[in-house]
Design a protein that fits this description.
Shape: globular
Strand content: 15-25%
Number of helices: 8
Order of helices and strands: EHEHEHEEHEEEHHEHHEE
Helix content: 25-40%
Number of strands: 11
Distance between the termini: 55 Å
Largest sheet: 9 strands, mixed
């Protein structure tokens, strides 16, 4: 590429110093030279700010926030690159030449995404579509900064703001490009079934907010009917006040 693009990598963190160092080392080993690294720290007390203060080539802030998506919005506002990717503390790129592979050629798209490695398995992304869940991980997606500023994360959705954002981008006619190789190695520590269940409930609220009535009929569970994966244990329960009328079947 004659004019290499600047890529902003954003990491949001709080009190995960050792995991953050793992992600920072992954960036240091990237063969691609045009990286703008931004770290949004949530007022850590484990020595993270002190460590960042001694680190060159990183732009960072350390202050309280209203949650992970509020911190990610701060990263968007600080981004100087044409593209942004969010890497959580503990995540690493799949190989030292990942960014070179993605940006060695011009990409005519607004969102570029690929696969992600979880443990010993490669989780394959799916072709672009309007669905009931994310079909790729945000650690494997590069989004034009201009698009992120047009559709920032809705911090009212504490679990599914990234799902809402990607749905908004898709429905706004932004172009998605799928790459057939892994982008990142996903850090699975701390992920629980309880959190995933909360994410399903939040996904339902996003669909109700963003999709038209035809898409809602296609995507949402039908009252009184057991749901196929990933809503396989979710059942509509109009008389049930918990979780806005939805409950998990036994």
């Amino acid at each position: 590429m004659s004019n290499p693009v600047l890529v902003t990598v954003v990491t949001v963190c709080r009190n995960v110093k050792s995991s953050l160092e793992k992600t920072m080392n992954s960036l240091l080993h990237q063969s691609y030279a045009h990286i703008d690294y931004v770290i949004i720290d949530g007022a850590s007390t484990d020595g993270t700010p002190e460590m960042l203060g001694k680190t060159e080539g990183v732009r960072w802030i350390s202050e309280p926030d209203k949650g992970i998506y509020d911190a990610m919005n701060k990263g968007i506002r600080m981004a100087e690159g044409e593209w942004v990717i969010f890497m959580n503390a503990g995540d690493v790129f799949a190989s030292d030449d990942t960014l070179s592979k993605v940006f060695s050629v011009e990409r005519d798209a607004d969102v570029i995404y690929g696969d992600v490695i979880k443990g010993d398995n490669i989780k394959k992304a799916e072709p672009p579509h309007n669905g009931h869940r994310m079909y790729f991980c945000h650690q494997s997606a590069f989004v034009r900064t201009s698009c992120l500023k047009e559709f920032p994360f809705d911090i009212q959705h504490r679990m599914s703001a990234d799902f809402k954002q990607m749905k908004q981008l898709y429905l706004a006619g932004k172009t998605f490009m799928q790459l057939d190789f892994p982008i990142a190695v996903f850090d699975t520590s701390g992920v629980s079934n309880a959190q995933r269940s909360k994410g399903l409930y939040d996904n339902i609220q996003v669909i109700r907010e963003v999709d038209n009535w035809k898409e809602r009929l296609r995507l949402l569970p039908i009252p009184g009917v057991a749901i196929a994966s990933p809503f396989r244990n979710l059942r509509a329960c109009p008389a049930h006040k918990r979780n806005n009328g939805w409950c998990l079947s036994p």
